[in-house]
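Dear Dr. L.,

I hope this message finds you well. Following up on our conversation about the binding site, I have prepared a predicted three-dimensional model of the protein together with S-adenosylmethionine. For your records, I am including the exact sequence and ligand specification that went into the calculation, followed by the structure tokens. Please feel free to forward this to your student if that is useful.
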Amino acid sequence: MHSFELFLTEDGSHSIFSAKYKVPYHSRHGAIIETNHVFIEAGLKPKLNQKTVNVLDIGFGTGLNAFMSLLESNKNASSIYYEAVEAYPIKKEIVDVFNYAALLDAAQDSFLQLHTLEWGQQYALTDKFTFKKLLNTFEDFTSQNTFDIVYFDAFAPSAQPTLWETGLLSKMYALLNPDGVLVTYCAQGQFKRNLKAVGFSIEPLPGPPGKREMTRARKA
Ligand SMILES: C[S@@+](CC[C@H](N)C(=O)[O-])C[C@H]1O[C@@H](n2cnc3c(N)ncnc32)[C@H](O)[C@@H]1O
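The resulting structure of the complex is given below.
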């Protein structure tokens, strides 16, 4: 049984603490600030010159990455296909409390639907945002699609080492299109060596508040 403890991060947005992994879902310096910095600015926005952008989100969690991507798609001409995988979904009672929609000046229903939609079904949420989430571990995840971006947002290597090792990084590499990128908040040395070992080239980037560096890795 998983239990989650809600807390406020420094930008005023909620996050939760995982009792199972003993880590928070986001930086204490700001969940919205971190998501915007790592996934939207460094991952999504540079790809929005493409007509269609396929995003793979590992793992879905609070849905904040998906929600901010949906909101970003409203401001751009590109169409986004968004697939998210999550092994340990958060209870609805907690999801209902999250303050992301209010802080992002968006509709709460638009956020909540990401959680209430059926797992495994594909939905055109707008004319530019198609969404599908899978209730699965990434280890068991398969897809008919390939992706332009992987949002790699698992718990840290200290909490979940195997997700950051070459076996599963090779799987992410194979799921990416040529010139596709993996973005993550993590900049750990061994992780970056593992990325290089499976064929990625590494772009160290400045991290969000509280972190010196983040990683963008590109498929040659
Ligand atoms: C750091 S949290 C971030 C979640 C989400 N991106 C967010 O912003 O809330 C990591 C997420 O990965 C999920 N997760 C952990 N191990 C996983 C696995 N093996 N396969 C799929 N999801 C996993 C966790 O349940 C959690 O939701």
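In brief: The pocket of S-adenosylmethionine is lined by residues 25, 58-59, 61-62, 64-65, 85-88, 137-139, 153-155, 160, 163 (CB under 6 Å).

With kind regards,
A. P.
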